[in-house]
Amino acid sequence: MSQISFQFRQMAQRMWFLPAAFSLGAIVTILIAYYGAQYAPAADKLPFTVPSNSVVSILTILASSLLTVSVFALSTMVSALASASQSTTPRAVPLIVGDRSAQTSISIFIGAFLFSVVGIIGLSSGIYSEAGRLLLFAVTIVVVVLVIAALIRWIGQISAIGRVTETIDRVEAATTKAFDALSNRQLFGCSVLRGEPSGVPLVADKIGYVQHIDVSKLQRVADEHELQIAIVSRPGAYAAPNWPLMVVMGEVDDETRERLVNAFVIGDSRTFESDPRYGLITLSEIAGKALSPGINDPGTAIDVIGTLVRILAAHKEDDGPRAVKYVRLSVAALEPAELLEDAFRSIARDGAASVEVVLRLLAGLETIAAGEPEYAEVALVTARDAAERARAALTAKSDLAALERAAAFAQ
């Protein structure tokens, strides 16, 4: 994906984007109804005519009611965001903000409101002909149908938006999508980087996190100057003047360095796209929040553990031949140890005193150990660590006995 595509997708997920697009569409529709009337049949040849006051009445009802509905929908969304931030983690809020279904409903309300206001102004000023009013009336009927459908959909959405289980599902979907988007063994179509790279390290011009890498741009620059580039900072990595983004083998002048560094999008925070580790961390934070003394909800932590196991169990490494698309680029593969640490380390720490959480965690790690061979040894090490933490936190003999039975597979 190019930088332009990435930036556009990030912008499209903003809460203001769809309402602005629908509002622009409403204004364009009004203009089409005005100018399109010039090509319509004469008034005496129209199937019927619509009085101006009839259309104004309908538009007035829409304008007055949709203003209230839009404010209510936005306030509901804000409440859902606050609830999700408090009950789960602030890192999950962008997924709720970027929900297309909720954005579409709010956008229809705002767009229809603006359509009604602009239509009333046009009719009151008398700029529409008989044909223009008929076209505007037909569009108004379509807008009414869209508003009714959006209201029905919104009723179903407000019952789920911001709930813990809904937030977990959205983070799971985003994390799974990030894994699926990383083709070729999560190497972005590059060859695998083995060992320490040699060459000239290039660093970012600002401090932040790598959000996206335009590997096609790196390949073009590498072809032009016959370079070999080792990408050492994947999406999600911390970028700073003392942390290299890449190591380049070959002659690099200032202009080439700037072009290479600009292929990396550096932002203030991590994103879910191309960064599945961020999704695992977010799910782990949701479990940690649930296990805090103020909430004390081990059931949510158990739900998160099941979700993490499902994601990691579905993440299979392809052992077959790999088609390398960008032959001059290499990047380190995702390490199973890092993935399991992101997913389970904090849960093992925060849930050590809850035997139910520990037992479910050990059962999930046993499932992972029995699946993908590359994860087997790491899962066993993680299970031993979780069991050790639980032994230090649990006091009841029955809990300790259940712990030893569950941890027997890791001995």
Explain briefly what this protein structure is.
The chain has 411 residues and is α/β, with parallel strands linked by helices. It has 16 helices and eight strands. α7 runs parallel beside α12.
What does this structure look like?
The protein has 411 residues and is an alpha/beta fold. The protein has 16 helices and 8 strands. A 5-stranded mixed beta sheet has the order 1-8-4-6-2. The chain has a 3-stranded antiparallel beta sheet with strand order 5-3-7, with no helix packed on it. Helix 2 (17-36) packs parallel to helix 5 (100-124), helix 14 (355-369) runs antiparallel to helix 15 and helix 14 (355-369) packs parallel to helix 16. The protein is flat, with a radius of gyration of 28 Å. The model has no long low-confidence stretch (mean pLDDT 84).
For the structure shown, list the relevant keywords.
alpha/beta, 5-stranded mixed sheet, 3-stranded antiparallel sheet, 16 helices, 63% helix
List the helices and strands and how they pair.
Blueprint: H1 3-12, H2 17-36, H3 52-87, H4 93-97, H5 100-124, H6 130-158, H7 164-181, H8 183-186, E1 190-192, E2 200-203, E3 208-213, H9 215-225, E4 228-231, E5 238-239, E6 244-249, H10 254-261, E7 264-267, H11 276-290, H12 298-314, E8 326-331, H13 336-350, H14 355-369, H15 373-393, H16 397-406
Parallel strand pairs: 1-8, 4-8
Antiparallel strand pairs: 2-6, 3-5, 3-7, 4-6
Transmembrane segments: 16-35, 55-84, 105-128, 134-155
Pfam family, one: DUF2254
InterPro entries: DUF2254_membrane
